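Lecture notes, unit on protein representations.

Consider one protein chain, 526 amino acids long.
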Amino acid sequence: MRYKCLIFLLFLVIASCVSIKSYNRQITKLHTVEELHQDVDHVYAKLKKLHPRLYQFITEEDLDRKFDSLKGTIDAPMASTDFYKKLAPVVSEVRQGHISISPPFPRFTKKERKLRRKDKFEFYDVAFEKVDDAFLIRDNYGLDSTLVGAEVLAVNKEPIDDLVSNYQHVFSSDGYNTTFKDRFVALRFSGFYLRDKGRLDSLELKLRHKDSIFTKMLRTIPKDSSNVKKMPKDSTVKELVLTKQEKKDEKRLDKIRRKDNSKYGFDKSKNQCTRNFRFLEQDSTIAYMKIRGFSNGPYSNFYEESFQKIASAKANTLVLDLRDNTGGRLDEIALLYAYLTDKEHQFIRKGESKTRIPFHKGLISRRSPFLLNVLGVIVAPVTIPLEYTRTRKKNGVLYYKFKTSKENKKPKELHFDGALYVLINGNSFSASSILSTALKGSGRATFVGEETGGHYNGTVAGISKFIQLPNSKVTVSFGMLHIQSPFENQEIGYGIKPDVRIVPNKENRAENEDPELEWVLKNLKQ
């Protein structure tokens, strides 16, 4: 039996290696025109079958014409990456921001993956921001902080303006606004560059800082690289020995740190927390809450603790910062809204769907990984009946009932009744836009910044469908549920617009200024 198990494991390893080699050959070869046409038809058929708002921002006739035109331009064999560059701009014409498309990347054996995990590419430690006509380095999560504030002129001698223009055509916002495209292309620049150029070991940035123009080479380096020299083993410096009580205290403090990191959503790779709270003035009258996303770690304790502090301090103003918050969980924004309103409410409507079993459809597919399909089959006897109980058809439309779509939801006992200011920008998307719609529609808050990237009238997200095209192996994912606040705007295709429009510029960043927040503080003093 032991030998049979070893032979079986050996077979799996060999099969895996063969599968990896076969896959890598598939994505690098030239695909025939017929194969690529099949892939175009495949993705469009899936979108028509499962996307509930496919023709919300484009007519069916226009989208049909664009997909037919795409097939007409494919008249010669093509590699997967080149096919992706043709397909992505057409899919983005749907103008639904949760549609994502990506070229295939080479796969690696277990041994190769283990070796790669020891290194990191410095490029992925750099965070970018687009302001005015400048493309800036906003932060560097690596060791070199001198790059922060520099303007990017070129990447590997290719002008940054050309790269940005190209990448803005391979993704879309919700509807017709432009703020999301301007912001998001910088927020995810390294990812767009990877899809365009493939994996690299190094690249050169041409930068400008004040009046100086220089280049910076970013390389692949060991993850444990540090400027701090390690103490040699034969050092005469003795290792610090902790007493039993000190070890106990250290263990207790470490437990507190882990608990706080969980509560605040600490992101180790960026050395920052997802959820932050503080008072802006010494008298604690102005509270400030910065939420970078709604998808990291448990959250209920953070909000309970924060609003308890607000109540105890008797703060009369709260600034909620949703800039660069690209979204996350419905449950979290529903909870936060319950702390910001004093009225019974329905947070979102029931979601629109094209299928009674969106969760199951998202989990299982002919093109999904084998283990994901196995999991889908195992849980199907539970998930399918449960999903059927959540869906109802009305006037020919299927509606999916969320826990957060419950009517007459009560506000939290610790809800905040004071003045509320919400800071937004083009990267305020998805869940942060749904929350903003509820606050804007109810007249609860004053909005400062620029138009959100997410649509005022909801978004197609919730449960995603992942497909891999049969020939090119290009991957496409899209939402299967239209999620919307009860509030609706007659101006279709745009985000939540600010009451006070303030857009930062290069000078603000050079002087480390926050003009949106500064306006709020100045307004309160006046």
